[in-house]
Design goal:
The structure is a single chain. The chain is mostly helical. The protein has a domain of about 120 residues. It is about 55% helix and about 5% strand. It is built from 28 helices and eight strands. A four-stranded mixed sheet has the order 5-6-8-7. Helix 7 crosses helix 8.
């Protein structure tokens, strides 16, 4: 019961048809909206089709049914692709020469299979949150609400989850298989896009796969700290403190380096802490999902931006940018900031120089900003909080516009728009503050001060040796920008911003801002792979050799992580904490609960298995103890009084209740209807969905 709700692999056919249509549309757009080479169009078309499909599904899902939400985007994209081909009126609609990349596609399919083998044996990194999002989005909750307290929208980058949601809605998959397959599909496409970039910049036959290896395996070099004298590591024990999950190791830093990482859902052969990284883990370990989609979009726009075929291509680029904002808002905002800073610096120095397609890309970026602020996701919710307030008064309330906003909400309600204008008592939403002393931020090791010699050395090893070559990388990128390849200048500028912002700014959830450093290091590492193969770039041979050696030791850490994950390849897990009973009940009840019903049950699992929100009561302001009270002493009378229509009973929770509480619950009353039920072979463990509606007056 890992794969399909009905156990039939043919259930996947509708999804395959929709994805092939989206791929065909992307191929048309890559052919007629951009000036790509024949070897680039088919693979870039797949990435473009996936990215634009997600963007359209998010927009359509605000208003239409789940089935239309996941069917219409592919058809709309195909119409747009045909219009681009008809308007251009030159050359072939599609060129058969593009199909000569079929060996690359087969290799990409092998990469998808490899990552799927790893993924289905692991349950890492916020699995419950990811499964919940995939399940409720697939069931039509767009934009998704915050499942632990669903009067609130979820402040999260949920763009990635549309691929898994489409697999559930159209492909009949269960939440965990949909999650794993969507990660694997995007991971394989991401590496194929890296192959295209490698071929473009390295030019050698092996260049594409070398670039893909760097993207997949490059990481920081924490493990090299083991080569330092023991006295230094003992000094590090005094000033370096493990953070988050890493603190569960429970040992000093020097001993933690050679210890297993105690993470739930990891491979049978544990990850060694010394080969992990708190800034840039290798992409072979990107099992959360959104980071894969973010890198895919980065590589896609890198390929497309200098190749616009017409001014109408601006709209496609703007939509790709908006999808990036929905997939991972920090890297989108960082790229847009780098684009702005590059524009200011470059044109201040060279006012009369014209760069190909640069003004068009600026227009696309400008168009994407209002869309990103309105389409849903993290940026939309932050703007809503800033203006109206969620837990406190927003900007408009702070300036005395509460009455005006209330009147506006009343007026809109007359036209059928449900508008809520909250007015809570406190303030502040941004959560940023100045960091002093400046520090290198690691999600595993915390803030490593630049003013502490020991912490600085640890921080440099955490960053990896690529940081030593940033002057040469920047010089190369700006030389290429002067020659017309301005995207490299933007990326180099973006990387510097990504390094410096976390050094001097801290965030209320400080480890989250380390994503900016991750983006910087990944960008520099890819660029370094291109610099060392550029024979025209003037640097001394020993520096080039040192750079190549640095890439090798950064890739080595990723190889160790990949090797560790092979121990999970032969196992299958249905998700953290789920088993065959959960799969069986999900096959019966997912998507079948009426949309307006209120479901009671364990917050995470009920949402995942039903596709229906099942957290706090709609009338409860957070925080509330009513839900916790009902979980401790469930009662039919209290459930009905709270407005619940269904109750999900898991024997693992039910059997923990005292017999007298079970007997007094009233859930065996004649009016209670068993909506769905499954038992194990021993007839001891069960999952049951109860319909309480017949008990209502």
């Amino acid at each position: 019961m890992y794969w399909y709700r009905d156990g039939n692999p043919l259930s996947l056919l509708p999804w395959l048809v929709v994805m092939l249509v989206a791929w065909l549309a992307g191929w048309l757009l890559a052919t007629h909206a951009f000036r790509l080479q024949a070897r680039e169009r088919l693979i870039a078309g797949l990435g473009l089709g996936l990215v634009l499909y997600v963007w359209l599904a998010n927009l359509i899902g605000h208003w239409l049914s789940p089935d239309l939400t996941f069917l219409l985007p592919a058809l709309i994209l195909l119409i747009v692709g045909v219009l681009f081909g008809w308007r251009r009126k030159e050359g072939l609609w599609l060129d058969r020469e593009d199909l000569r990349v079929w060996p690359w596609l087969l290799a990409g399919l092998g990469l998808v299979w490899l990552f799927l083998l790893w993924s289905k044996g692991l349950t890492l990194f916020d699995e419950h949150k990811n499964l919940s999002l995939i399940s409720i989005i697939g069931n039509g909750d767009i934009p998704p609400r915050f499942f632990p307290n669903y009067p609130l929208n979820f402040i999260y980058h949920y763009g990635f989850h549309f691929i898994g949601a489409s697999l559930m809605r159209l492909g009949g998959m269960l939440p965990w298989s949909a999650f794993d397959v969507s990660k694997a599909l995007l991971w394989g496409e991401m590496l194929l896009l890296a192959v295209l970039l490698g071929k473009r910049y390295i030019g050698q036959r092996w260049g594409g796969w070398a670039a893909a290896a760097v993207v997949a395996l490059a990481s920081g070099t924490r493990y090299l700290l083991l080569l330092l004298p023991p006295a230094f590591l003992l000094q590090a024990d005094k000033v370096v403190r493990l953070q988050g999950t890493s603190a569960l190791i429970g040992k000093p830093f020097s001993e933690a380096l050679i210890s297993p990482w105690p993470v739930d859902g990891g491979p049978p052969m544990p990850y060694m802490f010394g080969f992990l990284n708190g800034i840039m883990d290798p992409m072979v370990m990107a099992h959360q999902g959104p980071n894969i989609f973010s890198v895919l979009i980065l590589l896609l726009v890198w390929l497309l931006l200098p190749r616009l075929a017409s001014r109408w291509s601006i709209l496609l680029v703007a939509a790709a940018f908006a999808t990036w904002a929905l997939a991972w808002e920090t890297t989108y905002a960082l790229f847009i900031s780098g684009l702005i800073v590059f524009t200011i610096i470059y044109f201040w120095q060279k006012r009369n120089l014209r760069l190909p397609d640069f003004n068009s890309v600026l227009a696309a970026a400008a168009l994407s900003i209002p869309v990103a602020l309105l389409q849903g996701g993290t940026l939309t919710e932050l703007v809503r909080d800033f203006l109206f307030g969620i837990e406190g008064p927003g900007l408009l309330q702070s300036f005395g516009f509460s009455n005006l906003l209330s009147s506006l909400g009343t007026s809109l309600a007359h036209f059928g728009f449900a508008v809520s204008i909250p007015s809570a008592p406190t303030s502040s939403v941004l959560g940023f503050s100045f960091r002093w002393p400046p520090a290198i931020l690691s999600s595993h090791l915390g803030a490593l001060s630049l003013f502490s010699p020991v912490q600085l050395v640890v921080g440099l090893f955490e960053l990896g040796p690529v940081i030593l070559f940033t002057p040469w990388i920047t010089r190369w990128a700006w030389r290429r920008a002067n020659a017309g390849d301005w995207v490299l200048g933007v990326l180099a500028t973006t990387a510097w911003l990504g390094l410096f912002i976390p050094m001097f700014l801290q965030y209320e959830a400080d480890r989250d801002i380390s994503r900016l450093s991750w983006q910087a290091l990944l960008t520099w590492t890819i660029l370094l792979a291109f610099v060392v193969t550029d024979q025209a770039f003037p640097w001394r041979p020993w520096i080039r050799q040192a750079a190549m050696g640095s890439l090798a030791i950064m890739v080595f850490g990723g190889l160790v992580i990949a090797g560790t994950q092979f121990s999970a390849a032969s196992t299958t897990r249905l998700g953290d904490g789920y088993n065959e009973l959960d799969a069986a009940i999900a096959a019966q009840i997912w998507g079948r609960i009426p949309a307006d019903a209120i479901v009671f049950g364990p917050m995470g699992s009920t949402t995942v298995l039903t596709g229906h929100l099942s957290g706090q009561l709609l009338s409860e302001p957070p925080p509330s103890d009513i839900w916790h009270s009902l979980m401790a002493t469930p009662s039919l009378e209290r459930l009905l009084a709270g407005g619940y229509d269904f109750a999900y009973i898991d024997s693992r929770v039910w059997d923990d209740l005292a017999p007298e509480i079970q007997a007094a619950s009233g859930l065996d009353t004649d009016c209670v209807v068993t909506f769905a039920e499954v038992w194990d072979n021993s007839h001891v463990n069960f999952r049951r969905m109860l319909d309480l509606r017949p008990c209502k007056p």
